[in-house]
Amino acid sequence: MSLNPSPQVRILQEDESIILPEILARSVGFVGLDPWMKFVHNMYGFPVYRIASHLNDQVVGWLALVRVQHPVFGDYLTTSPFGSYGGFAYSSIASRNTLLNKARALANDLGVEYINVRFDAGEEIPPEGWIQHPIYATYRADLSPDPAELMSAYSSDHRNHIRKSLKKGFSIKFGHLDLLGDVYEGLARSMHELGSPYHNKSYLRGMAESLGDALEFAVLYGPHDELAGAGVFIVQGDTVTNLHANILRRFRSDYAGEFLYWSMIERYCRKGCKGFDLGRSLIGSGNEVFKMKWTPRRQMLAYWYALMPGHTLPELNQKNPKFQLAISVWKHMPSFAVRLLGPFFIRGLA
Question: How far apart are CA 320 and CA 347, in angstroms?
Fold first, then answer.
């Protein structure tokens, strides 16, 4: 009789529900739990594969994948669709490996090009047959019941920029579906300026309806009540995560980004949140420089790939020269074309 039995692993049925232990659910994140996976399935029709690892009738691991099939961006399995990371958690290396082996078997059965498992253990060495692509990090800041304590830890330049932003006449609204129109406009316009496709308004509506009170929209307005930016924030446990937060270009020099982030920090400090995940950025990017001003801990993300025979590592990010050309073209396209084509392209970049 084995003293160390191996975990058992299986793919759940479509209508099967399961309750994850709290520690696994936290590690999996909202992007790996059923409300998010059902939302993504309903929005874009992606098949969902939920893999559970069991030991002695206890769930000891979880891997939630969707299959993306796109004429431009390929056929692949990924965790955390349209999120930064998550959907993968385990209580031991044995559990981790049983989940990854099951995922590889699923990939072979489906005939996909690769698997991408994204989670927050970038310092961990992947097992044989998996490749780490170390280009992204996330940024986690502690919150305090007294926001002034946080302000005192920032550099003098950063404190000065925040104070300047507070004198520029900006205002902000937090809400839910009541802000749907403005939050969509703010995100769609800013993404166009950045050269990136975006979803349609029904995507944000479906997200809000699926996540309920865990989700909050934020809309930033300029001194004449004109739209200046928008954000989507999601609370899980005692942590708030920045899923999207963008500022329109003409307001950036007035430190609108500082106003948005500081308003969010003040709000969630007073709501009792203890942590703020500022979201994913490319390492070395301007976004990373901005986020580091808020004194977070930089956490390298694990972006593990299992490549099926005959396929190479995909480069679906801004560092790819082909993407740079596409970004330049997209920025100069008319708004009506961007909004028509955006959902087609973005669905392939899950």
Answer: 19
pLDDT reported for residue 6: 87
Give the pLDDT score at 2: 45
DSSP for 6-34, written as a single string: PPEEEEPPTT------HHHHHHH-GGGSH
> What does the block give as tokens for 289?
């420089």
pLDDT at position 209 is: 98
Instruction: Give the contacts of 55 (CB within 8 A, at least 6 positions apart).
Output: 5, 7, 8, 95
The predicted structure's pLDDT at residue 284 = 94
Q: What would the pLDDT profile of 258-285 be if each residue is shown by its tens digit?
A: 999 999 999 999 999 999 999 999 999 9
Angle of helix 201-211 relative to helix 34-44, nearest 10 degrees?
Answer: 150
Rounded Cα distance between 226 and 10, Å, is: 52
Alpha carbon distance 188, 197 (integer Å): 8
- Output the six-digit token pair for 265: 């920090």
Is the distance from CB of 249 to CB of 262 less than 8 angstroms? no
Pair 344, 330: CB distance under 8 Å:
no
CA dihedral 278, 283, 285, 290 (to 10 degrees): 30
Asked whether the beta carbons of 331 and 185 are under 8 A apart, the reply is no
pLDDT one-digit tens code per residue, 165-197:
999 999 999 999 999 999 999 999 999 999 999
Longest Cα pair distance anywhere in the chain, in angstroms? Answer: 74
Kindly report the backbone phi and psi dihedral angles of residue 247, in degrees, each rounded to the nearest multiple of 5, phi listed first: -120, 140
Quick one: DSSP state of residue 285? S
Answer whether 37's CB lies under 8 Å from 20's CB: no
Strand residues in 106-185 grouped as ranges (E)? 114-119, 131-132, 136-142, 171-175
Residue 50 has a pLDDT of: 98
Residues 6+ positions from 197 with CB-CB distance below 8 Å = 191, 330, 338, 341, 342, 343, 344, 345, 346, 349
pLDDT above 50: residue 1: no
pTM reported for the whole predicted model: 0.95
What is the phi-psi region of residue 91: left when phi exceeds 0, alpha when psi lies from -120 to 50, beta otherwise? alpha
